[in-house]
Specification:
By secondary structure, this protein is an alpha+beta fold. The protein has one domain: Sandwich (Immunoglobulin-like), CATH 2.60.40. The protein is built from five helices and eleven strands; from the N terminus they run αββααββββαβββββα. It has a seven-stranded mixed β-sheet. Helix 1 crosses helix 2. The longest helix is centred in the last third of the chain and has 18 residues.
């Protein structure tokens, strides 16, 4: 969604200036290609948070929350939440959304292809060259991305660090996190009526036939 991209872009600018941050994304996809729920948590310092707020104010907003919610479409206003939780000098920015269907042109896409569901998120894929000086590299090295994805069926192809059945995980640090291409391809579960084991269906048929013969 555009609001997630907006916050990520602002965060990149703030981190390059100073400070560190950790982003954790947790997403569950339905078999129809819609997102059942997604949650992004940005853990950072008050210094980086201050940069984000200043950037939002320069755009005419009174707060980071107002800036974020302004970028959320009307169809998602009641499905998206934004919260901030402070722990001393650290802050967690928590963004959650439910029943989300990616729109054409967004960096997050989910499409059906030859009986498979293909998930791709380019939100964190930067179009800028990686810094060459040691100071910038050191600053960016404090940034990390942890991405958790649950697909509706078994994942058959992915560039994730960890894949277990229908779940995948990406754990990226530094420049790798700023050039993250999240990709997973999964099977699409059959309709509920076809998910019953054939053995169980056979047992049911036997019981039906036996019942008819008993009544005779």
């Amino acid at each position: 969604m555009k609001s997630k991209i907006l916050l990520s872009s602002l965060l990149v600018i703030a981190i390059v200036l100073s400070g560190c941050a950790t982003i954790t994304v947790d997403t569950k996809v339905r078999k129809d290609g819609s997102i059942e729920r997604t949650r992004m948590v940005v853990n950072t310092s008050s210094l980086v948070y201050g940069f984000l707020v200043e950037s939002a104010k320069k755009k005419g907003y009174s707060s980071l929350r107002e800036s974020f919610m302004a970028s959320v479409g009307e169809d998602m206003k009641d499905k998206v939440s934004y919260n901030e939780v402070w722990h001393g000098d650290q802050v967690s920015i928590i963004i959650e959304a439910v029943d989300y269907v990616p729109k054409e042109g967004e960096k997050l896409t989910i499409k059906k292809e030859n009986g498979y569901l293909i998930y791709q998120d380019l939100t964190f894929l930067s179009d800028k060259a990686a810094p060459s000086d040691e100071f910038s590299k050191a600053i960016m090295g404090t940034f990390s991305l942890h991405y958790y994805l649950e697909m509706p069926g078994k994942i058959v192809d992915s560039n994730a660090n960890v894949v277990k059945e229908n779940k995948a995980e990406w754990h990226l640090v530094g420049t790798d996190a700023f050039n993250a291409k999240i990709y997973a391809k999964s099977e699409i579960p059959a309709l509920p009526g076809f998910e019953l084991p054939l053995a169980l269906l056979a047992v049911i048929l036997v019981l039906i036939v036996s019942g008819k013969q008993w009544r005779k």
